Amino acid sequence: MNGFEKRAHAIKEKIMKSTMELLRTSDPKRIRISDISKKANVSQVTIYNYFGSKEALVREVFVNFVDRAIQEFEAYMNAGHTLKEKIAHIILLEKESYKDFPSALMKELLINDDELARYIELQYKEKTIPLTVRIIQEGKDSGEISEEVSIETVLSFIQLYMNQYDKLLEMAQQSGDIEKFLEGMVHMFFYGICGKP
């Protein structure tokens, strides 16, 4: 990468970072190119030159976020953690991603952008699900997951947790101790309400 390319990359990254910061606190529909321009300290023309439109910029920010999250997920799953740590990571993953993209914002972006929705669905099917299935199969092979429980059942149970994450997070916040509440949810995932077998 030559000097010009490095400068262009740095400017693009600054614009995307500023957009991400605005998305954390503002409705995407209310964010204007002028807001992003001011926050990134670049001209509006520069933003249009790099991204073409606000919608394309927001899409690229979200795609970048998803790609990074998937890379981090894959790295964690391949880093020698125990099965329990891996499953807990899957269940609690949204706790971390929630800071950057609250789920209401994610849903809004996906509803309003078919191209983005297709991209996310593809990543989920081609990367996240196969890796999760591999982890579950390893758990079955090692005897850590009962033979009585199918891979589909474990996937469904994980999906139940993740589909209710907004409610779980709200309950966790009301409990006064988010970490303890979510750790309890992971414990229940593995051992039910009666404790360890």
From TrEMBL:
<feature type="DNA-binding region" description="H-T-H motif">
    <location>
        <begin position="32"/>
        <end position="51"/>
    </location>
</feature>
<dbReference type="InterPro" id="IPR001647">
    <property type="entry name" value="HTH_TetR"/>
</dbReference>
<dbReference type="InterPro" id="IPR050624">
    <property type="entry name" value="HTH-type_Tx_Regulator"/>
</dbReference>
<dbReference type="Pfam" id="PF00440">
    <property type="entry name" value="TetR_N"/>
</dbReference>
<feature type="domain" description="HTH tetR-type">
    <location>
        <begin position="9"/>
        <end position="69"/>
    </location>
</feature>
<dbReference type="InterPro" id="IPR009057">
    <property type="entry name" value="Homeodomain-like_sf"/>
</dbReference>
<protein>
    <submittedName>
        <fullName>TetR family transcriptional regulator</fullName>
    </submittedName>
</protein>
<dbReference type="InterPro" id="IPR036271">
    <property type="entry name" value="Tet_transcr_reg_TetR-rel_C_sf"/>
</dbReference>
<keyword id="KW-0238">DNA-binding</keyword>
